[in-house]
Amino acid sequence: MIKYLGKNGSNVMENNQSTQLIKNTKRLRVGGIDPGRKELLPFLRIGTMPDELLDALLIISRTLDGNDLGSDSYQISQHCDLDQVFNINNTTNSYRQVLLQSKMSENSDIDECAYTEWNPIIDARIKQTLADMFGTVYRFRISVMQGNHELNWHIDTDTSVLCRAQICLADTDSSFEFKTKTGIHILNMERGGIYFINTGWLHRVVNNGTTPRTVAIFGFKFHTMRNDLQSLIRI
């Protein structure tokens, strides 16, 4: 479901353009070879993951109950202000991520494309589904946000450098909000949906319910995405 809330918020978006997830590496996150954020939709459902594979990912999220944010295995997150962006409460474990692709190359810690080595726990059918749609995917992880929690507004990477997608693993009373020049746009994800997410715009997630919001997140290059999907997400 998509909701449009008018044109309010556009000034806030421009004034916070420097609100980068990794401020000191902003230059590495803009100006790539692929279409920029203004050329692509804020978000769109572009596919569906079968129930049995969703359940397999949910089991992983419950079995691996730690938090890789800020850890040695998740070096890119060490360059973030985790509290500022993710609003993390270490006491309640209100927000966590489980990294399921490790850093394989010797590239910079903040290069998402260095994270390509799959954890053997991932079902081969999940990897094949993603490869068929996106080509190579990067930094695949599971995100778990508890109820009554929200992320702060932030910008990640421009789509010209790296695009992002999410798989909704369970229905919740949560919303994904985006601020663009045309206003605030709200996405309510449905279980099984695979969504293109334009994180070049200011965005945040709010979970107003009591059920944890559990999604899989990963990056991909626009030019390796299937051609029919490329045309869908262009403005």
What would your notes on this structure say?
This protein is α+β, with helices and mostly antiparallel strands and 235 residues long. It has one domain: B-lactam Antibiotic, Isopenicillin N Synthase, Chain (Jelly Rolls), CATH 2.60.120.330. 18% of the residues lie in helices and 29% in strands. It has five helices and 13 strands. The chain has helices at residues 10-15, 51-63, 82-86, 124-134, 227-233; strands spanning 2-4, 43-48, 95-99, 101-103, 115-118, 137-145, 149-150, 163-168, 174-180, 183-187, 193-197, 202-207, 213-220. Strands 2-11-8-13-6-3 form a six-stranded antiparallel sheet. Strand 9 (174-180) and strand 10 form a beta hairpin. It starts with a strand and ends with a helix.
Task: Give a brief description.
With 235 residues, the protein is an alpha+beta fold.
Rg from alpha-carbon coordinates: 16 Å
Annotated CATH homologous superfamily: B-lactam Antibiotic, Isopenicillin N Synthase, Chain
Total helical segments? 5
Query: What is the spatial order of strands in the main beta sheet?
Result: 2-11-8-13-6-3
CATH class: Mainly Beta
- If you average the pLDDT, what whole number results? 86
Helix content: 10-25%
How many angstroms does the end-to-end distance come to?
18 Å
Q: What's the helix and strand layout?
A:
Blueprint: E1 2-4, H1 10-15, E2 43-48, H2 51-63, H3 82-86, E3 95-99, E4 101-103, E5 115-118, H4 124-134, E6 137-145, E7 149-150, E8 163-168, E9 174-180, E10 183-187, E11 193-197, E12 202-207, E13 213-220, H5 227-233
Antiparallel strand pairs: 1-10, 2-11, 3-6, 4-5, 6-13, 7-12, 8-11, 8-13, 9-10, 9-12
